[in-house]
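Hi L., both proteins are below.
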Amino acid sequence: MDQTSNLLKQRRDKAKLLAESGVNLFSNNFKAPNPITDILPQGETLAAEAFEDNGNTYRVAGRIMSMRKFGKAAFFHIQDETGRLQVYAKRDLLGEETYNQFKKFDVGDIVGAHGRLFRTKTGELSIEAAGLQMITKSMRPLPEKFHGLTDVETRYRQRYVDLIVNPEVRDTFRKRVDIIRLMREFLTNRGYLEVETPMMQPVPGGATAKPFKTHHKALGIDLYLRIAPELYLKRLLVGGFEKVFEINRNFRNEGLSTRHNPEFTMLEFYQAYATYHDLMDLTEEMISWLADEVTGSMEVMYQGQPVDLSPPWKRYTMDEALVEVGGVAPDLLKDDAAIMRLAREKGIELQPEAGPGKAKTELFELLVEEKLINPTFVTSYPTEVSPLARANEEDPSVTDRFELFITGREIANAFSELNDPDAQFSRFEKQIAERGEDEEVHPELDRDYIRALEYGMPSAAGEGIGIDRLVMLLTDSPSIRDVILFPHLKPEAGQ
């Protein structure tokens, strides 16, 4: 029998003995525990001599995280959602029967205790247990002799254990909740209406990505998990809502990496009578404010590198970024054949139908993107790679679009919206005609969306912000899997 099997057997043997002695291993009657941090908010900051016993009795519940037994007495720490507290179990106070049962308790068990507060000789705030109760018997020991869980894949796969033993992980996900709450607050205070749009769509759209496909039996149709809510949010602009946003999941059938998970969270928002310039200003204000609210500063450290989020942020056109950051000669950008040639020389594979706009965009991703550490807006994306964006009136070869980069990663994508139904129909048709073998370009266009535009959509701008990547930045997390509670992984061996 291996060590793990032996430990599991020991746990179950103890559980059997406890049950035989009358202990309910999964009780449901321990009422109204006091949150540990509410018992004494200043906690361990008080010196032992400053503590006065007020005679109150407190009730606490939580998971046993450590245990020291000394025959007739024991000290153990319990952990609830708010913190940890030491409990002192003494045979003379608990009675022999209860104490003998307690001796079969294990680290990992969830227990309740009540008693008065006191300070130990070392000054540690503790509860002297007048009563103990098993709430949930743990049948599996915590990892690595209860000193933590460090194996990265095990942490992601068994997030429940990761949360138990690594307090910094719990802090990361609390910050995630705060970030999403603050984003809602920011937009709601500016008159945006939060809405919900379909997660299953008959025609995938709003972004270029391979979708997940399913089938609805009753309707007899195929449906797709949404890759973006964009086309439905813009339908709401047609319907008369002028400021809308949605925070929800998108699904893209693509590879996994430190920046990509097939299921991820996006904020998308749209505003009538606004341009992409308005959204640049709004985004700069929102993210710098978020950083200050969440971290206490507009300068954050990300993986050992300082990132200054203080406004104003740098703004480049794509051509300017290719020249100033990527080192491309300015004259070369004016020569379509030369830019195509440079892309191929850099090892970029271009489809036969690809034009200079696609070549520029690929060169930008290769030569510039990872160098944009402090927040940088990049504007004037080629029309060729921006099928939903409004063409610039002075130079129709580019669009009124920006992407925001921080720490070399795309954080946001936005543009002034194309609201001419005929132009949108032509863009869709051209994209489909040139799709070739590209599974990320969908073979069917959304005709209902074109119909909606025919009723008239006001001039507008819209934006998507990747919440997972933003949380990575504000929690100094190296991988997107560190900020998604249950990231997707390959199946375990043997399963």
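That was the first. Here is the second:
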Amino acid sequence: MPVAAERQLRAWIETAATRHRDKPFVESIEQGAAMTYGALRDTANRIGQALAARGIGPNDRVALLSNNSIEHLATYVGVMAAGITCCTIHVEMNAIYFEEILAAVGAKLILFEDGIDAESLRPKVPGEWVPLGTWSADRPGTGWYAELACYPADRVVPIAAGPRDAASIVYTSGTSSKPKGVVLTFAELAPNIEPTADRFGIRATDRFLDYRSYNWVSAQWLSCLGVLSQGATLVMGRRFSQSRLFDWIRTCKATIAAGNPTIINMMINRPVDIHGRDLPHLRYITSSSAPLMIPEWKRFEEMYGITVVQGMGMSEIGWICGADETTRRFGTVGRPLVYLDLSVVDAEGRRLPPGEIGAIELGGDPAVEYRYLADDGSIRVNTKGRMRTGDLGMLDADGYLVITGREKDLIIRGGVNISPVEVDNVLLQMPEVAEAATVGIADAIYGEEVVAFVAAKPGVALDEHAVLAFCAARLPAVRCPKRIYFKDALPKTDRGKMDRNRLRASLDNA
């Protein structure tokens, strides 16, 4: 019998703890500690009791102000396993918005790690403020974890939530605009996890290394809940370190490691003396958050002998596409998860056949609402049923999805649609080019004109004429950049995506 969505997390915890109580669920590299599946079950049971003692029930909110740690991860899982809404807020990215975010969230309980200025926020933000503290397998904990130790580990509080109740609220980064709170129900969360784990080929024997923030859906749902659903092990770093990444993979015997285009480009342009044969346990490195250009993808694999697997997701949906080392395909983000019913549509919303570029749309249940948290704490429906991701792309003959750009980045020159990603891919084929980004700028005759920004590899000199000639030999004239602007490095968003808005603005301010 299928498990109800609101009970799925508890079922995964119970299954894993029953099968292998002493197997690590998470190992924290910096903390030098691990929490087993048995300890996770005990912690989740205690969290359920601590919340019930406070009268916290379905759709009441628990705010978590912390970075990557065992305590953060166990609380995130345990709160939702109790059927309560967990709101994770990125400490570094959202710090200037704490007061506004917490006012909107209206959390009954706010758990915060050391370094958070709770004393200045507490008078302005209602709710119970409790230090997150520390957990230990063999000595008394502190803060929240000292309180949890007072509850019996084997008492299970019944779940009162239903599938349409909120499981989590995730805030976007807010680096260029005010952060947005995405509200996700148990019915949206639970069905995404096992299909995602299956698409990425995660098995119980895997050790998944991830150092991305567990305040974002991509890490939460793939390497935390995806690992949990399979009874695998998460090896967690507090944040990315280029100098330590391969040592982590080797010493922790990671079989899968997280990545993104920024990290892969960093490894290409700042080479490390290592090869895949030196990492015998590693199956592949992931790439997500932004499209990985084909030249960069191939260059990394040729340099390091390490397989890259690309996937795609979004905060409002979770993971959308993925692959593993046996099913990945260059230039694609893998195959869509079947239950999402992804399609590529034209301007009128009609499904397009394979090979034709259009807007990416998904969602099958007409009752599903995609929701955001308003400033006053109410939940606002953004769209219902099917929704657009904001991406442009096409499906190939085998159902693999190719991302060709963002709808907002599409360049329309004299009525011709031009994908900046197509031009980026050509520029990156030039051996001297480290980074490239194409944008459209206003033009009195054509409406928009194509220009590109390029960063050369260290110690390499490039001139505009050579780059333009390279493009002219590989692109139709209408798609060729008319100007090349050189920078030492191109700006990225916090998620590793090329920041084309800042590049356009740099021309406006020149």
